[in-house]
Amino acid sequence: MQNSGGSTSIQQGYLDRQFHLSEQHTTVKTEILAGLTTFVSMAYILFVNPSILGAAGMNKGAVFTATAVSAIIGCWLMAFLANYPIAIAPGLGDNAFFTYSVVLAMGIPWQKAMAGVFVASILFTILSFLKVREIVIDAIPQDLKLAMAAGIGIFIAFVGLQGGGLVVSSKTSLVAIGSFTVPTTWLTIFGIFVIGILMAKKVPGSIFIGLVATALLGLVTGLIKAPTHFISLAPSLKPTFGVGITHLSSMADPQMWAVVLIFLLVAFFDTAGTLIGLAQQAGIMKNNRMPRIGQALMADSLSMLAGSVMGTTPTAAYVESSAGIAVGGRTGLSALTTGVLFVLSLFFSPLLTVVTNQVTAPALIIVGVMMMSSLKDIQWDHFEVALPAFLVVIGMPLTYNISYGIAFGFLTYPILMTVAGRRKEVNYITWILLFVFIVLLYVLNVLPKGTTA
Fold it and tell me: Is the residue at 18 inside a domain?
């Protein structure tokens, strides 16, 4: 027993030194719980990504494995390079653009489109290595950073409301309240109340407990179908591995460079906005800067490059990491745990079918509430700041795109600040970003529109 206790102490000591747990006022137990919560909240991508890319003609089994492996690489790089509780996996917006706009609308075969993703990944990594992304993020005004955090909060709450069936599409008003005659909607309602009550009582791990309780209720009532088996081997990567590299000759087509530009810009600002929002939530920001931002961006870039080789669309920092942060995650041990669970998911994929949209929806909604606190620090009494911040906040959920919300802020902030006589407070990078977003919005509206996901 003494040897066992001594071994445990040594392991905990190593983890403390590696991830600076004491410095961040957290524990091994809390970080593992946070990593588990983040994984449960984002595990849907293992099934959604193959479904979307499958519509482009890609092998769903191979995409499933590529999704998991790229998430493992991303999470572990984030853990050891940046020591942040932020998970990385293929992004939803990028895969929808890949399938519905590039492959289906523009008629580009998925093999050629994947070559575009590979080239964008290389450029992305170079920009990170040269610290261009780090310089840009540090230059973003504090008020816009706070607005990004709140905007992401509303965005993920909206995703939760949709996934849980509480908000549905409407031809007359775009959105409407869901039907309470749908049994699974009540799972979401149940989860919201369970997590809300536990949060109000300040019970540790409230979000994760709520997720488990909701899943169990779904299984008991038959609203969630129990898996028929528990273990399966991971599908082969052969159908998609290296396809982008073997089709690099397609880059001779000028149309492909427009595709590369969009993948590059959208991935750049999606991750930037998400990292800032999560850092604000976790209390990581110091003097309007995110420590070790360069390492975090490098982890994101390398995982994107690895994913493009294996056969999946660009990876991104996941807003669902906010669920783990809300549980108490503050270090890379949380991200490491999430990565380990993605490894297990390769062999226990049937179990993940239990984690439906209705199970994860309550967590996303509650976390959205928590992320709204950043609004209190925005200078609302200065209209030149208030309008750009407001456009960022509402732009993300109403366009269903984090990058669009950020664009609205940068298209107005430098102009209004100048008119208000505060031009000296606007750095040159902010002006550059104004023109970058003009180009981005122009290109996005010139390219053919695909079917929405």
Answer: no
